[in-house]
Amino acid sequence: MRIVVTAIVLGMVGSSYAAPKPERIVNLDRPGSMEAIEKENPEHYRKILEVIKTAEAQPCETLPKILKTLDVMDTKCRPYAILTSHPPKIHLTFTIGNVGYVTNAVQTKLGGKLIPAK
Fold it and tell me: Is residue 48 part of a domain?
């Protein structure tokens, strides 16, 4: 009985520290979305530009830690899921305040080169 009560209390405490889900998700790759954010929420717009600029130069392994310094939470990108375009892109999700954002960030400043197939 004591174990059951402890498990319930710990479950309640743990869930209270879970990050809240965003109220809405905005796809930044949709036409006009950045312009709308610039008008509606200039502070988010400035942070989004900084996130995209940082994502160009940082690998997925270090990106979430760096973006936390900008108050950007729940950053997710998969280093093994690089979109095979030129230049390569990564699928990036992050949260600012109570809004989630999704984009494909261009990886212009990371190493690597194209090699023709044999």
Answer: yes
Q: Are 94 and 101 contacting, i.e. CB atoms less than 8 angstroms apart? A: yes
Q: What is the DSSP string of 49-101?
A: HHHHHHHHHS-TTTHHHHHHTTT-EEEEEEEEEEE-SSS-EEEEEEEETTEEE
Asked whether residue 42 is assigned to any structural domain, the reply reads: yes
Query: Do 67 and 94 contact (CB within 8 A), yes or no?
Result: yes
Beta bridge partners of 77: 92
Q: Does 3 reside within a domain?
A: no
Scanning the structure block, which residue is given the tokens 């699928």? 91
Residue 6 lies in a domain: no
Query: Residue 5 above 50 pLDDT?
Result: no
How high is the mean pLDDT of the chain?
81
CA distance 2 to 7: 9
Q: State the CATH number of the domain containing residue 68.
A: 3.30.1300
Confidence (pTM): 0.72
CA–CA separation, 26 and 15 (whole Å): 25
pLDDT on residue 28: 96
